[in-house]
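Chain A, query sequence.
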Amino acid sequence: MTYFDINSFMNEFDAINVEANKEKERKLIRELLETKSSRIPTIKNSSTKQLDELSEAMYDKTKSKIPNDIDGALEGKAAKAGQDFLGEISKPTLRSAVKG
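Chain A, predicted structure.
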């Protein structure tokens, strides 16, 4: 006569259940990573555009507002040297830290 061993049955059931839960977690993690990865190009484009706008604003300020302010603050050779220096400054290149 063979007896049904409930303990071994429960142990087997628990092992199968644990593995099923792990697989669900793996699937969820993969889906989250795919979702986040698909957003990276959008974030990069957005931040690049914002950095370009900031760079342009900095450059415009260096080329127009600051030289005009120097005229009122400095005189003679000092004003000329300041304006010459500002005239040599190139537009800054700001790069996004977002990779992808």
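The chain has a mean pLDDT of 88. The helical segments are 6-73, 76-88.
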